[in-house]
UniProtKB/TrEMBL annotation:
The lineage of its organism: Bacteria, Pseudomonadati, Pseudomonadota, Gammaproteobacteria, Pseudomonadales. The chain crosses the membrane at residues 44-61, 68-90, 96-122. It is a multi-pass membrane protein. This is DUF423 domain-containing protein. It comes from the Bacteria. The keyword Transcription regulation does not apply. Coiled coil: none annotated. Belongs to the UPF0382 family.
Amino acid sequence: MLRSLLLLAAFFGFTAVALGAFAAHGLKSQLSADLLAVFQTGVHYQMVHALALLGVALLSLHVPGRALLLAGGLFVLGILLFSGSLYLLSLTGVRGLGIVTPFGGLAFLGGWVSLGVAAWGLGAR
């Protein structure tokens, strides 16, 4: 679990920086201000949750249990659905893709709840 979560954190962190630079330099003149903001929201949430994945990976060294694995999986799912749908929406202009975004947000919320459950379990020790 540790290696997979660290690799995913590194991948999503790297791609968040690359996509942010792409938006700032390559898309600034191609997209409307509204669509550029949508793209940047995807980048922001991707980076925050890449860092959350890093935290989950490091916690997994000391905290056993499935709650952390679930948190990591939900953060990955959230990045793919939330940020991915925002990237596609802003690049294609297809507004119907926005229906996917809330499912990514729910995955993020579930990840944070799972992380909380893991933390709650520490108090029982």
